């Protein structure tokens, strides 16, 4: 990131009646960065995006673009464009005129408009669709027109509100790659709002995980996934097993005491007797034969084949259950007596108060 | 037509039967009267056909059948001027009604959802009072010693009364006032359904508030504008009460001419011809417009 970030939101707060949509939120987005705002619905991510676009005014805090305060600029004066969740294509204009809308507001010359619109139709692979009416397009085509329209005036920052939300699963995965490819080619900063953690992990350079108007963690997808800051982030991003227990510090090292057994922990910062939550990803747990050393005995309850992996649910002592991910070639059937092995540095542990 | 059950056919037939019995049949009768000759009798025209005539007389009468009344109508500048003046006054009134009603409709459509029924109800409230009384009230407002002139003179805005009453201006004011709700409702329904994210998208793409209105709000409400203008223009052309009460001797409107022809001159054939021509004048452009609209929609 450069010294002056492209976008900086400083301590922004926004209330709607009694609800705090944004509560003292700060973040920075660098030039050319693909940034994701991830969170469950109602977490304030859309409000934050609308604040940047200029459709909402913060009760407190500032929005800076290239160091200049744009908090009080009207939306049409901000060099920031937005792709709406509903696409908001103008139904009275055809595809060409939709994409040209922003260019014409900036008084581009006729030939330049034509060239730019054709360039964008090419980028989004809709070369021959200029004369189509928007209601003659499929969902995926409408999505691409909306993207082209928002990109046309060469914004320094593009905001995308759930851009893939209305597409079916297969199309969504294809479009993810296209979106990332377009972003990389144009070197425009993208901020994407999504509630879909797969989408955020796949697309973004950095992710801000939000909950109830606050940012819980900002980091790269790997940081967020491997080192979640708290129990909420661990549970929201990716599948995980959240195990409640407490810490037992002994002479030969620290242990996490779970209802089903003791797990050795390395580099445990929590004190003896403290309540803690351990987040274990399904792939961080190994299934092995009963005979293995350091294993905790369990019974296979259920196995769901997922193609490249098999999700196995095991039942442990104290009626605890864990989800374990197995690679191909490993096969377990319900009723098998097996053991789980958890390495001493696997997972992420939080003090229980951080829930 | 595809095969429809008897029940469906009956349901579909009902409105057509209604229109045939209460609109097309009376119109045919009026058309028939317009082709006959005026006489001093009761009714004051010579019936075209009567059952007593018998087939030979029918044929003879059919050969004598002419459009003299229409020829006389088109030769007389009184009628032509009445038509032109009616169309002009109606057009000006329609345009002004649109200009007044649009912000009105926009304000209601953009108000909080729970307030909209109340605001619409208030806009409709004048309908609970007799139309005639409301037009009479305008006399009190507009005449030289009326409220408007009184207030303006008291404020020294004007030295002498404006002389509004008994002019075409008064007629236009009366029409704009009376027909406002007919413009308001279609505009409101066109504006109320607009997706607010379209306006945000336009603003986001650099459109100033004025450009958002001209490029998005207005074009997307064109159906409401079209419907409202028709609902005001068509009855305004044939309006009788407003020009009669608020208009002066200069006010020449076809509704008034028709009334005179019918009640003062007792010339039923002529007044019928005036009515038929008025209908043709209004319905033909309407049909063309509708056809163009359908074609534009089918093409795109």
How would you describe this protein?
The complex is a heterodimer of chains A (355) and B (300). Chain A is of the alpha+beta class. Chain A folds into two domains: 7-236, P-loop containing nucleotide triphosphate hydrolases (Rossmann fold, 3-Layer(aba) Sandwich); 241-354, Nucleic acid-binding proteins (OB fold (Dihydrolipoamide Acetyltransferase, E2P)). Chain A has helices spanning 45-53, 95-105, 110-123, 139-151, 169-186, 197-203, 221-226, 231-236; strands at residues 7-16, 19-29, 34-38, 60-65, 68-69, 80-83, 157-161, 189-194, 206-211, 214-219, 241-250, 253-258, 261-265, 275-280, 285-289, 296-305, 310-315, 321-326, 337-342, 348-351. In chain A, the strands form four sheets. Chain A has a six-stranded mixed β-sheet with strand order 6-7-8-3-9-10, sandwiched between helices. Chain A has a five-stranded antiparallel β-sheet with strand order 13-12-11-14-20. In chain A, strands 15-19-16-17-18 form a five-stranded antiparallel β-sheet, with no helix packed on it. The longest helix of chain A has 18 residues, at 169-186. The mean pLDDT of chain A is 91. Chain B has 300 residues and is mostly helical. In chain B, 74% of the residues lie in helices and 1% in strands. A two-stranded antiparallel sheet of chain B has the order 1-2. In chain B, helix 1 crosses helix 14 (268-299), helix 4 runs antiparallel to helix 11 and helix 13 (254-264) runs antiparallel to helix 14 (268-299). The model of chain B has no long low-confidence stretch (mean pLDDT 89). At the A-B interface, strand 6 and helix 2 of A face helix 9 and helix 10 of B.
